[in-house]
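Students often ask why we bother encoding 3D structure as a string. The short answer is that it lets us treat folding as translation between two languages. Here is a chain of 174 residues written in the first language.
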Amino acid sequence: MTYYSIMEEYLEIINDKGEIIGQAPRSEIHGNPGLMHRVVHVLVFNRDGEILLQKRSMKKDVAPGRWDTSVGGHVSPGEDLISSAFREMEEELGIRDGELRYLYSYVHTNPYETEHVTTFSLLYDGEVSFNPEEIDEVRFWKLDEVRKAMGRGILSDNFEHEISMYLSFLNSPG
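And here it is in the second language, the structure alphabet:
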């Protein structure tokens, strides 16, 4: 019998159609790319068009010490995507309001996990108070700075995929 802590986060497992097919503890899902789960990302921009990135804590099990998406987190069982995005914004950056804009969805997979990512954007010029348990630093980056950092081990692999999706989105017709 496997024992899981009652404090462990549970996630919904989804199939390639996005249908929920089960639940499992995070510790079982991470490390098994065959179990796809839902996450939300929020790309936070200021009025100058710069993107807010977070430097992941060295305590994180995925991409410690690397710069990452403004906000990213798991969708809790039974939670809708908008609620999840707002919960993650508040938990990670102390942002409690704003108008989220849906951008796109995609699947991100690597040897560690498979995520169905739904990405939103937010225009925000207010105060940010990040969670020091999860984040070592935050700052706004110009998109050219981000492009120059790609492939150099500065950004998380997940964020490099995300920003590539975003740049393609910007350049797509319509």
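Translate back mentally: Helices lie at 26-29, 81-93, 143-149, 157-171. Keep this in mind for the problem set.
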